[in-house]
Specification:
Shape: elongated
Strand order of the largest sheet: 2-1-3-8-7-6
Low-confidence stretches: none
Distance between the termini: 49 Å
CATH topology of the largest domain: Molybdenum Cofactor Biosythetic Enzyme, Chain A
CATH class of the largest domain: Alpha Beta
Number of domains: 3
Structural class: alpha/beta
Number of strands: 17
Helix content: 40-55%
């Protein structure tokens, strides 16, 4: 089944409210085996709604509409839908009882404008709103289903989960849509595409691949469609196993897992600890690590050695080494890693020093030049990176690259 989502509201178009409804709804519909072919955001305007419904019904089997069902004059969706479906209004007693209950619970006077919300188009099947006063509406026309729901997220979500999707599952044989995301780091999107080209070309027709890049990470999403869920799971898992055989060193996890979560799991498994010495990242690595619940079991602390004086006084880096090699150098970053490990008495010290930009670069060391070092009990390793000219992306990529160096070392152990 093909679906289209129409979100109504001037507040969405001027950026006053972020449209989270569309992404949540699309995710839930995919889980139910419904393919979303388009998402549209339109104004609270009668003609815009008419046009969008006409166009959506040409593309989709099911049209989902959210927003514009409130009690005030600017909420025109219900009246417009009644006109679109050439319908009069009837009084819906269950909605009226729900409205009375809500106002009594909140100890508020029941007004005529709220009672009016119990009026629904005669040609719709009303959907009771368990969390609010505006009912949803289910219309059918020329073999298409139109479902209108409130724009308030927690009202819409309950209605979709408890009423809309179960009704659709009763009405249609929806099949299944299965997604599996492979998380990679340490390799550019274009390089990754070349490495897995033959594998991608041999994917079954019902499994599609999408590249979803972001600074430092490329997500590979496999999407499979079919009528047998177990067969889909087996087929996708087989393809993931093949992919792992090609790019295993770049894969750090699956679906929504973060590299900082993986680092935590590995350190706990090895009964080891970590500290960081950060210059150009300014504590961002420590922030990522401590964003994971339970990170106090393995993360001891960080020294933000932004100034050279902190590198020498707190980390024991030789001022001569800084003077001769520069703060952004192999020798200095290795000394930083060893120094923080010694100071905070951890298994590993992870250090980073670079030129985040937009200023500070030279011909020999342009903006985006970053040295990262990992110090352990018996070894120290350092790697040089060139990330580019954007300060924010440089900080993000530096942090992820550092965590990946640690991840690969822990796996090799």
């Amino acid at each position: 089944m093909r679906a289209e989502i129409i979100n109504i509201g001037d507040e969405l178009l001027i950026g006053q409210v972020v449209n989270t409804n569309a992404s949540w709804m699309a995710s839930e519909l995919n889980k139910a085996g419904i393919t979303v072919v388009r998402i549209t955001t339109i104004a609270d305007d009668r003609q815009a709604i008419f046009n969008s419904l006409d166009e959506a019904s040409q593309r989709a089997d099911i049209i989902f509409i959210s927003g514009g069902l409130g009690p005030t004059k600017d909420d025109i969706t219900k009246k417009t839908l009644a006109q679109y479906f050439d319908s009069g209004f009837v009084f819906h007693e269950p909605t009226y009882e729900q409205i009375k209950f809500i106002f009594a619970t909140r100890q508020l006077p029941l007004t005529e404008i709220n009672i009016e919300q119990a009026q629904v188009p005669e040609k719709c099947t009303p959907l009771l709103n368990k969390n609010g006063t505006a009912p949803g509406m289910w219309f059918e026309k020329e073999g298409k289903v139109f479902v209108s729901m409130p724009g308030v997220p927690f009202e819409m979500k309950t209605m979709v989960s408890e009423q809309v999707i179960p009704r659709l599952q009763e009405k249609y044989h929806l099949g299944f849509i299965l997604h599996k995301t492979v998380m990679t780091t340490g390799v550019p999107e274009s390089t990754l595409a070349i490495k897995i080209m033959k594998w991608e070309e041999q994917l079954p027709e019902n499994i599609k691949l999408a590249y979803l890049p972001q600074p430092g990470i490329v997500r590979l999403r496999l999407s499979a469609t079919g009528g047998d869920k177990k067969q889909l799971e087996t087929a996708v898992n087989d393809e993931v196993d093949k992919l792992k055989g090609i790019i295993d060193e770049y894969i750090f996890g699956y679906d929504d897992v973060s590299i900082e979560e993986v680092i935590g799991q590995l350190l706990v498994a090895h009964h080891e600890s970590l500290s960081t010495a950060e210059s150009c990242t300014g504590g961002y690595i420590a922030h990522l690590i401590t964003s994971v619940p339970g990170s106090s079991r393995y993360f001891i602390g960080s020294i933000i050695s932004y100034a050279n004086a902190v590198k020498t006084n707190q980390l024991g880096v030789s001022s001569t080494d800084i003077e001769m090699n520069g703060a952004v150098s192999r020798k200095v970053v290795m000394a930083m890693a060893k120094g923080v490990r010694k100071q905070l008495k951890t298994t590993y010290g992870l250090a980073v020093s670079g030129i985040a930009g937009p200023d500070g670069g030279t011909k020999e060391k342009p903006v985006g030049t970053v040295w990262i070092a990992l110090a352990g009990e018996e070894h120290v390793e350092a790697q040089l990176f060139h990330f580019g000219e954007h300060r924010g992306r440089n900080i993000r990529r530096s942090a992820l690259a550092g965590l990946n160096i640690l991840r690969l070392h822990l796996i090799d152990k």
